[in-house]
Amino acid sequence: MSDINQAPQTLAQTIDWLHNCLGRPALPECPKECERDCDVPGGKAPAWINQKGKAVKVSWKPYQNQLPTQANLTKWFARTTGIGTLGGGPNAHGHYIAFVDLDRKEKVFSSPQAFEARLEQWFNDYPLLNVAPRFRTPSGGYRVILAFTEEPDWTAFSLDRDRSRMGELLARNGGHTLLPPTVGANGIPYHWEYFVAYPPTVAKPEDVGIYPTRQQHPSIPANTSPRSAGSYVPGAIRLEDLLSHRAKDILTGGAKTGDRSDALTALASECYGWEEFCHRYSISYSGTTEILAEYAWGQMEDSSRDPYKWQRILKTISPSACQTAAEYHSGDSENCWKKIYRLDRETFQASCPPHIKDRILGEWGIDKRPRASLTASQQQLNSQKLQADDVASESIPPNNGQVTDNFYPPDSDSKEKENLLLKYIDRLLERGNIPLSERRSECAQIAQALELDPKYVEQIVLTRLQEWQFAEVESEKTLIEDLVSKRKQSLDLHQILPPEIACILAQIAAAMPTSAEHLMTVGWSTFGCAIGTAAEVVAWPGFRQKSCVLWTISTARSGKLKSQTQEVMVNPIRLLQQDANSEYCIALKSYKEAQKATQQNRDPDSPPEELPPPPVPREYWVEHITVEALIRTINENPRGFLVHRDEIDGFFKALNKYRAGKGDDEAFYLTLNNGGGPKVILIDRDRRVEVERSCVPITGTIQRKTLDEEMTPRKISSGWMARWVICLAQMPKRRRTRLPYPDIDAFLKDIYHKLSVLKMHYRPVQNEETGEVLKDETNRTVYQGFPITYHLSDSAADYYEQHFFNPMVEREEAELNEGFQLAMSKWSGYCLRIALILHCLHEICKLKNLDGTLKTYLQLKEEWKLSGREHSEKPFEIEIPTLIGADIIQKAIATSYFYINQAEVLYKGQQQDEDDTVPVIQKLIQKSEELRDTVAEGWISTREAYRNCRELVAGAKLRQMSNTDFTAAVFNQMVSMNLGETKKVGKSFKWRILR
Asked: Which of 49, 27, 25, 24 is nearest to 38 (CA)?
């Protein structure tokens, strides 16, 4: 093609574009003939026309990861006039090519006009889409092409957060689409609306407002009615929990192998079998086969071609003839009742037939075995000691087997004996890890007191111990899965920032590549530094935040571009510092010249003339600074400045270094975090410093292991660590992207510059001794700035109180983890600071030229000069509205919850006691994910695990096991939680987390 950004008009040009630009396969398409000869609805399947004029289907699977040969292309396109391709990747650039397929469905959009209006709104919300290639489909739909740096693992999507399905995201390998100039089965061709050779790149679909319609598992509506007598009640067994592993795999992952219809038939047959089973025994359950079948069909590849095929498949199945997998393999319902027992013991006890119940309980060692009758003396003793069922302060009988006064034997009812036996066993197990010999001795004492077989008691102890361990594992699994999901959460910049800022940051993140979350984490400090003490925010009377101070840390392992990510946001601040230094040099030179001229022209007989104060350098950024120098710098730069330390660990270690660790540097910084400052500080005999308020944001990077070492109990309990906003988001794999790198320095420098001149209140500065108003070298009055107060609107204040402030107070009171509790206590204020920053950003981005571009700082200053205000004594400043709306507070709340979840992952990943395995598993998951992109492919051996995780060594010592054996046990425990897989390589036992 002569012009790389000219839309391809021919098949040859389209093939060239697909293979050489996108790296995706060109496939033949003949919709009309394919529908006629291959019985494919709409003809939307790869097919070519043979010599007889018949359509021949082409399997697309071989071309998921390879391009067709020239011989195939020659054969396919000899008589075929249509062309298509597959979404997916990664291509040579490491991107996943996605076709965003928007359907114009009547049940979603009331009219074609409504569809077009929603499309226009989407493009306005995300300007990046305006430069994305896109084309129309014969049915009136729309397809936009994008390149993702992360592979989406879902298909159905919505442009709204209510998750009503609007189309499909064809981004996984196998996502098939037709392309222009193909003519559809209805005779209407696909046609380009806009074309560029390579689509814009974003990290993930959410960055451009594309959201999955469902999460990992279908949610069964509470009012769903079952097919028959088993009606829904709260706490009823869920139908999907009864399914076999194979059926669950089909439900959540579609048909990985084999025919999709066969897979759905197998799933539906088992669902119908369980519904018949529950109806047969009057078991309450929730969910229906139809709900699960529809969900499973939506997970199948290319299910959008025939979205209602699942209904036709269900019509071919006779529900009454279906069996559960458990019944089919065993020939009876005993295995079904075993599953019911594991899910709901009350239902098992109430509904299971007695003969099956006795057989299952006997097999598991929970049966009521007949015992020899008690002797007369024993019956007499027991009758004297018989008490009520409520047993208080019992103790295990002594070694001689005699029944003591605080031991209450059961009456003749075996049910009471069983309950008492379980109470004794529970008390025994509550004592924790006891030696095997001691446990057997205790079991013998219990058996002798209750006239039971000691082996039977030991069997019950083992069963009870397994139940406890299973409950503990399930509890830990739930917590770990929750923490893993929270650590993988992302921050959608397009949802919180103005489009102009969000787009350029997303482009930078994709081009480096780096994490947009880490970019924005640094941004909270740099944007807050630019605003400084010019603004404060009030939620309601008595609840005020004095400035936008946010201390931020980006954490990731070495080599993940942490420092480069910081440089993106910090370097424009340095450019402002360079400009300020140049202005200071000029001002200082003028001051010295004026001072020299004054001395030369002074009458020797007249008293010396008081000179104006010398100019003070404007500081935007510092790196290494002592507390004493910090105080002076705050006094000379009341607007505020940024403290940036690439390795923030050095900043931590530098505190109190001149006082042998016994100073108050840390306490001084805690004061600065609140936006205040020391009222009076004596520096020397002749000078004092008064600081009413300050704005000293701090930002830096740290490795996760170093961060864990810094989180000592003292620093946690003092609230020092709670002040830091920490981002743990995973960094992308390092690679060369060859993507355009926008001029971020000039853009952000202009944004910072505009923020640094936001309007303030001013009052003249007076001489402390004489009370005279001070003048500068040009005889202008010197003014001191005071912050403008920004208020939440009534609706914003109500929303903030109901959706963040009150829930956070309740959550904080209920939290048991001290570190996380202290961290949450700070976020009621941090949320307001973020809201203030977002408000200022959105307002300055509304200052635009007629062509829609942002007005620069120089343009705004020139307009100010033309308005005649240049000759006023007050400096140039930008005025914005002082009322913060509900939309801004919603964005701030969404951002706050992201960082709160990051804090929860951090603090609950710290070991609270030696027997706590959750932090150990968290660290192993993190380590495996770090090794995923290396030659290790995420695998960790037992030796590597306990060498990198000291908690494993401590746990092994506590349990009197070898490091290797205990680590292997932890590996197996994680596999039982579905948190990874293991393998044995020679003598090495390895584990890794699944993707």
From this structure: 49
